[in-house]
Specification:
heterodimer; A: 234 residues; alpha/beta; Rossmann fold; 6-stranded mixed β-sheet; 4-stranded antiparallel β-sheet; 26% strand; B: 403 residues; alpha+beta; 6-stranded mixed β-barrel; two-stranded antiparallel ribbon; 57% helix
Amino acid sequence: MIQVENLTKIYGKGEIAVTALNQVSFSVREGEFVAVMGPSGSGKTTLMNILGCLDSPTSGTYILSGTDVINMTDKELARIRNRKIGFIFQTFNLLPRLTALKNVEQPMIYRGIRRKKREETARKYLTEVGLEDRMHHLPNELSGGQKQRVAIARALVNNPDIILADEPTGNLDSRSEKDILNILTDLNKKGITIIMVTHNEKVARYAHRIVYFHDGEIVKEEIVNAGGGSIETG
Amino acid sequence: MNFIEKIKLSMTGVWSNKFRSFLTLLGVIIGVSSVITMVSLGSGTRLVVGGQLEELMGRQVALFPNWNLPYTQQGVLSLEDVDYLKESIIGAEEVAPFYRGWFRINYEGREYTGSVAGVVENALELTNLKLEYGRMITESDLANHEHVAVIGQRTLEQLTDNTDFASFIGKEIEIDGNRLLIVGVLGIANASVVLSNDVVLVPLTTFRDLWRWYDPYNFLITYDSKSTEEDIINQIEYLMNDKYGTSRGQCKFMPAGIQKEINIYNNILKILILVLGSIAGISLLVGGIGVMNIMLVNVKERTKEIGLRKAIGASSRDIQSQFLIESILLAGGGGIIGIIIGAGFSSLLNFIIAHFFEWWQGYIPAWVILLSFGVTTFIGIVFGSYPAYKASKLDPIEALRYE
């Protein structure tokens, strides 16, 4: 599914240059749930941005579902972000002036789907994440956990192959954290590949495999739960 | 992503800051309403000055005795001069003698001192006065020295409260003690320089019989479109000097054109257009900068939204068009508000001016509305391009991280 080789990302030039990723090689199988751990500045977010086609590496190769994305145009990359990848952020990034339903519809606008169909699909996914009675609420009328569920619904509406989650539970209480992780685990069981960045060892334990980053390099890989599925954390 | 979706998306942007959007647009609104008012006022005067006055009334010169000379040295026009001038002036079309005087006019006990003119049968064509009811003075009236009168509505209004002007045909009025039969009524028409609406026309011969001691003849000379007023006046002066000689180096007669008056009109119009045009230009420029300013603020404020939109599948082009359309909607919306305000304001002005000058015919041409709309849309494009470009070039990662 994902194959990166010798991925290097250097920010800045000359003496102030910072190497965020240093010759990283890494692959993710289809249907896998991978957690990426490491301290701040270890390069895990940079990796996520490159995997999410939001950023391009300084050197190295990135093959996504058999296609080389390094030399793609802005438009082609936008299409990949739109259809193949779903993003979930620590700060949710919902559009504050739009209702939950409208927020979930947004990715379908860029796909060119008609309004009726968009609304139908958005309703379906919001119901799936348990927010059927919150569809017409604005983000500031929702709790953190609910916001993140809206964001998950938004990530799902275009049937992505991969979900990239950057600290998805970083701003949530432990109860919501568990809800969100269970939703992610369920999605993974349905065949969606998930890559999740986290600080929290306990959260990382939901994955099949944990990749540890330090100073832009992978320092350790650990298979925690080959079969996948949720683990009781209480 | 289709076009309608793009417009809807941009619409939310404009609408979510209604008040701010409106303030931003004041410049554009003032600019557009100035343009519309300016064109509307301009069209009002141009219709009259440029149209009827210039075409029908403009090409004429009135010839009077030279009032600047002592009375005894002023020239006296004779009817022979009609043919003399008509045949000698290159470019002359008609030469018509007329008398003009002010007399007491009585109608059923009410009195009014007004203008009375002795004219020939083609006076209407020469002066642009319009016959509303009855008939004009005819050649037989002139030949028979008939005591008939064609009376202007303005004069009638002074003499009676009855507005059924047609009913005055066949009635008699008294002018300076002489009874005359009303045969025609003049309607409201554009003002003429020599003769206005507020007049009673009588046959030239009748006038001469009754008041020949009062004043000598005056002439009205019309000329063709190939001649200039200056040229005609020079010819008249030359011909009159040749026949009557000069007095103290001056011509004994005074030809008076109306081009000078028309030029004053035109100059006032030009100044008006210049002033309103500058206001329009400056406020449109300021408005455009306002649009750019607010769009830059918009981009900054919505950095995070831009980052997110990119993450969920917007290309740089999508972002660029979203903000460009937003800017066009903003400026175009200002244009529409400006058109409405400008139309309302100029309608009011035209209404007021028409109240004082009946010949005023101000209106709002369709092209200025289309032009205003086009210009404001253009402003939206010009001043929205840079903010939209800036938005499209934002790094999505930094944008997402922006707080």
